[in-house]
Amino acid sequence: MQWKLALHRPIAPRASNEETLRRNMRLGVANGVLFILADAFSDANLVLTVFVRELGAAPWVVGLLPSLKSGGWLLPQLLSAGRLQGMTYKLPVYRQVGIVRFFIWLAMVMVVWNATSLPVWVLLPLFLLGYALYNFTGGSGSVAFQEVVAKTIPARQRGKFFGARNLIGGLLSFALVSPLVGWLLSRASPLLFPHNYGVLLFISFVLIGFGIISFSLFAEPPTTNPPAAISAKQMFAKIPVLLKSDRNFRQYVLSRMVTRLCGLADPFYILYAREVLNVPPRMIGVYLAVRVFSAALSNLFWSRIGDQRGNRLLIVLTGGLIITVPTWALLVMPFASVLSPEALGWVFGVIFLLIGLSVDGSNTASLTYVMELAPAEQRPVYVGVCNTLMGIATFFPVLGGVLLAQFGYLPLFWISAASAFIGLLLSRRLPEPRSNEG
């Protein structure tokens, strides 16, 4: 009973607003770093993609992994946003969801560790079910996370906040996670499949637990005079209303969904490298290192732009970089029969450099842009509607798997490049919300 009460108990603020802000910043950065490290050990586009492929998964199943990760985080938000809107404190929702996610991930670790005793037709659905449940339960608490951040971190410090999370988490992933992942998945690993993957997921499990605890200790101020809670049915009814009445919001959703279409190729870059270019398994760790290191360093630049010049500009700049990801894959393809697998592995690795430079900055900009675009009293509704619509777009990689199976890699990369270009054109028409600040 005491633990149940603790889950609902708000954390008292410190003696001054500045001290409370500093404490929340430290806890929030720690939360981000821990989850970034956990995600690196179980990366959906690198580690888990190769894992399910080794189990014999079809391309559309491979594409399902990043879709479950992103879509699971985004899709349930519409169901939780309306109820959350009427709450004085949002943090208890995050705590309750965090406990559920913690034990779901533990079950996944046990499934993977005992994979050799299970037939593939049982193992693969169990793993996918656990991964889906983990991400969808996380999605139900993500509006609470965003609302707590919006309430406690000033708008002009959110770029610094998310940038610090990404920078420190990326550097630690580069220095610690990438070498360990590369070693455990290499031919020199002391652990055979699937125990090498089981160890990686167990480390993620420990980091997830500490990450949940750190954010649960935030000092959240109460929401004064919160609007009435809204049912899920009412929330769904708000989708066409918001899209019709708010032109800026409609433009934003359209631009992001088109840009998301570029992601239909994301989980297949590593498969192209392994199965077509024949790069060695140890390059998975190298690619992870390149991606997280470039993402970490880019946040020094992106966070400053977001704080000082606005997230609209950040969306445009990162959108331009996103175009270069599938474009580089297209440029490398003619050299597949000329260069050695070792040389191709390093040349192809530029893709993961470009992903690191662009995607983290784009995601941070999108998250904070909606916080600024939405009216404060309707922010949970705007965030819930937006992220649910974005959640639909995250299942584009499943379509990518179907396209790959039917037509091959070349059309897949061309479609990705074209959608990124159109998304950039649309994002250039977005307004800057801060132009309306007093």
From TrEMBL:
PROSITE patterns, per database record: MFS (PS50850)
Q: Which PANTHER family match?
A: INTEGRAL MEMBRANE TRANSPORT PROTEIN-RELATED, MAJOR FACILITATOR SUPERFAMILY MFS_1
Please state where this protein is localized: Cell membrane
Primary location recorded for the protein, binned into one broad class: membrane
Q: Which Gene3D superfamilies match?
A: MFS general substrate transporter like domains (1.20.1250.20)
Protein name per Swiss-Prot or TrEMBL? Major facilitator superfamily (MFS) profile domain-containing protein
How is the protein disposed in the membrane? Multi-pass membrane protein
**Keywords in alphabetical order:** Membrane, Transmembrane, Transmembrane helix
Q: Which organism is it from?
A: Herpetosiphon gulosus
Q: Which residues form the Major facilitator superfamily (MFS) profile domain?
A: 197-438
- Which InterPro entries does the UniProt entry name for this protein? MFS, MFS_dom, MFS_trans_sf, Sugar_transport-like
Residues spanning the membrane? 97-116, 122-145, 166-185, 197-218, 253-272, 284-302, 314-337, 343-360, 381-403, 409-426
